[in-house]
Amino acid sequence: MNDRNNLKNSNDIKFIHIPECFNITVVIGNGVSHSFSEHFHHSATIGLITAGEAAVSISKVKRILSERGIYLINPDEIHEISGCGIDYNAISIDKLILTKVTGVDNPIFKTPFIENEKTASQITSCLKTLTDKKSIATAKQESLLTLLAGLPLTESDNIPVQNKNIEKSLEYIKSHFLEDIDLRILSDVSTMSLFHFIRIFKGQTGISPFEFIIQLRIKEACRKLAIGESIADVAADCGFYDQSHFTKYFRKHVGINPKRYISNNIISSNYENG
User: Fold this and answer.
1) Which three-class secondary structure string do you get for the chain?
2) Residue 145, Cβ neighbours under 10 Å: how many?
3) So what's the pLDDT on residue 158?
C-alpha cells in the first residue's frame, strides 16, 4: 500500500454531469489523498471504494472501508472522508429527484454502510452504463432505478426538526451567505445569546456557522464555475477576499483547485471512455 500511495498522491477528481438521467452527477476519484472534513450535500450519495482504504464517518458512525466498500449518505447528512491514494466512484442524486423517482416521501438510506459483493457489482455495472457515451437515456435511467431498488431505502418517519430559533438563523444564512454575516445578527435572529447560539447551532447542524457559510459559498462557486464564469469573478462574487483565499477553501472542500475543477467537469455526451 505504501508503494501505491507514493505512485498515486496527486488528486484526480472528475465530475460527470448526466442531465439525461435525472440530472445526476457521477464523481470519479483516482489517487485521492485528501481529508474532506465534516460537510454536507443537499443530494444523496451512493459511494464505492474501488482501491485503497478510506476512513469514512457518516453522522458520527465511523468505518474503515477498503476495496468494494460501500457508503450511503442521505441529503444534508454530516459526513467526512479521508484517505491516502484512494480510488472511489460516487453517484449524487438531488433529494427532490430521489423523492420523485422512488415515489417515497423523504426517502433515506436505513444504513450508512454496506458490505455486499452483489451490491458492489450492481454499483459498478450501473456506473459503467451511466458513463458510457454510447448508452441511451433509457438504459441509464433503468440502470439507476434498478440499483436504487436494491438499496436499503425507506421513508423516514422521524424527519429531524430543527430548533425553531436555529431554523430562523439557517434561513437567514441561506438568504445572505454571499454577504459578510455578523454572528451578532444570527444570534439576534435566533433570540439567543452568542454563547448559546454557537453551541446550539453546532449541536443541531453538526458544524459551526462559519463552516456552514463557507460550504454554501463553495457550492455556489462550483455552480458558477461549471457554467463558465471566470475564477476571479467567482471568487469575488462568492464572498472571498481574493483568488488565493478562494482557492485555499475550494481545494479544502472539493479536493482540487478551481482550475482543475473546470477542466474536470464533463457533460455525459462529451465523456470519452478510457
Assistant:
1) CHHHHHHCCCCEEEEEEECCCCCEEEEEEEEEEEEEEEECCCEEEEEEEEECCEEEEECCEEEEECCCCEEEECCCCCEEEEEEEEEEEEEEEEHHHHHHHHCCCCEEECCCEECCHHHHHHHHHHHHHHCCCCCCHHHHHHHHHHHHHCCCEEECCCCCCCCHHHHHHHHHHHHHCCCCCCHHHHHHHCCCCHHHHHHHHHHHHCCCHHHHHHHHHHHHHHHHHHCCCCHHHHHHHCCCCCHHHHHHHHHHHHCCCHHHHHHCEEEHHHCCCC
2) 14
3) 54
Q: How buried is residue 7: exposed, middle or buried, by Cβ count under 10 Å (0-12/13-18/19+)?
A: exposed
In single-letter form, the type of residue at position 98 comes to L
49-91 per-position pLDDT tens digit: 999 999 999 998 999 999 999 999 999 899 999 999 999 999 9
pTM of the model: 0.87
C-alpha cell at 23: 440530472
Identity of residue 19? P
pLDDT at 10: 65
Write down the residue that cell numbers 458544524 correspond to.
Answer: 207
